[in-house]
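This follows on from our talk about sequence and fold. Please put the record directly below this note.
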Amino acid sequence: MALSKLWVIAWRDLARNRRRSFFSLLAVGLGLALLILLNGYITGVVEDALQISIQLETSHLQLRAASYEDEKVSLQWKDLLENPEALAAEAAAIDEVEVAAPVLWASGVLNTRDDSVGLQMYGIDTTSALYAPFQETMVAGEFLTPDDRSGILIGKRLADSLGIKAGDNVNLVVVNADGEADESVFAVRGLFSTGIFKYDDAAALMPLSKAQAFTGADGRASAIAMLLHNQDDADTVAARFQNPDVATLTWEDLNAIFLQTMDTAMSFYIIMYFIVILIVAVIIANTLLMSVYERFREMGIMAALGMKGRQIMLMFLFEATLLGLAGIVVGIALGSLGVYYIATTGIPIGDMGSAAGDIPIGSTLYGKFNPSGMVWLSFWTLLITLLASLYPAWFASRLQPVEALHSS
């Protein structure tokens, strides 16, 4: 019997019990839609968090003193870069580099009349495009100027928690390069709201020259931060700064813990994917097995008329293929609608994002379309659906004509 005939018979058999076929198809579609939605959500959250970290914190490439350690946020001269402006200018002259600027980090305590909070201080080049995300999210006051000697910027959430506003004076305390506590009064020039808790809750920005003078860094910087036109060029650019006294760290090095955490989490999500697909596969197998039991006599007649066991088996595999393909179409349509919604509207999580610690996520999480993920999920859904249909198909192919004809 020609394969085209088997396809026709398979189609008619599915149409014979439309309700069961519809719900089986729907199970495949909803299962795949759930997987596509989950995949889009995870892809969006991970990629957004990584890009936010690169833009606001790590950049694509950093130059540091070889002895500098993140955990200590050291201000000792041996741990800082000398002549940071010259290094930044050298980096900015490289074709692959979009922008480069020095930055000085320090731990501090911000005090008001009634409260105090620990934070990280950033001494920044206020004219650099590297800090455009802060400038673009100003909600009160004004951005810093290079010659400002008494102004700082803080997050609006931090200001609200302390009951202060733009224009108010605050006291900032740091442990300087000599290991001694130093303090000074600063005016809050403005408030920013990046939407990222790590910065809105615990960061203060001031001009680099003032930060160097305040901390006793004497013109030194913690790092040279660089954004590249293409992040894949990070290793190439890093190779141009081979110096035993200077450490080069790419965005992968600087986000290693985050990337490892996401890799571990993805293993868990892959297990979830297969659980959902297996549930769908069991439903398909049950549908086909019920179809076999309902058509015992029909199978016997077909076998008596000369249809071979492998043809009967193929017919049931074709039924599973039709169910799987139709379900995949439905699943892609529903899943794409779901991803579009979370990519444009997002999922509000309120202050729960603050529990993420050093992972930079905001109060709303957004998904992202992942076409390759859709293709692979569709492929695995169809493959496991076909594998699940093997037993019912094999069972049907093993029926003896005489036994089938005498079944009630």
Q: What stands out?
A: Residues 3-53+258-405 form one domain. The two ends are 27 Å apart (CA to CA). The mean pLDDT is 83.
